[in-house]
Amino acid sequence: MPSTPRAAIIPVTPFQQNCTLLWCEATKRAAVIDPGGDLDRIRAAIAKAGVTVEKILLTHGHIDHAGGAADLRDALGVPVEGPHPADKPLLDTLAETGAAYGIDGAKAVTPDRWLSEGDTVTVGELTFDVLHCPGHSPGSVVLVSRDARFAQVGDVLFRGSVGRTDLPGGDHAALISSIKTKLLPLGDDVAFIPGHGPTGTIGQERLSNPFLQ
Fold this sequence. Notes:
Number of helices: 7
Number of strands: 13
Order of helices and strands: EEEHEHHEHHEEEEEEHEEH
Structural class: alpha+beta
Helix content: 25-40%
Number of domains: 1
CATH architecture: 4-Layer Sandwich
Strand content: 25-35%
Strand order of the largest sheet: 6-7-8-9-12-13
CATH topology: Metallo-beta-lactamase, Chain A
């Protein structure tokens, strides 16, 4: 029987970004996905869940997802994995972006491991396939547990919407292609946690998302 993933969503930054604490129920080993900021809130959630964080995962390089990654890596002594190397320019300029958006303390971060299409990521006994899904940002990645029928999609797909493409490096046609060729084929029963807003399922979005009709 494959281990079950558990997740706690921790809204962080003025953008109310869904930082996710994801853990393997069998081992209590965890990953923090997209720590954009508010690290005290993230650390409180880790303590409440009673888990041991073994890595930080980044779905993409935008400030509200990655701004706190460097400080959290230093605090926990764990590696950062992701996103795809195409988001390196975003990660290199997080401090400047944070200043522009009024987010204090954001720091540039270089991942210990970049992720590409076809890679796998482990959290405890859980395994996630990496899908490179450009469009919202050039290096956005989606993490999929085929066993658990679950995906962490960052800002590629939202319930009833899709990621913005008006930011530097955004490409609406590429985003819709990423969703239609990589996410929809995962199956209607796959549940997902997006980077903002409520959770959803692939089937619900296939039927009712106005951007996919």
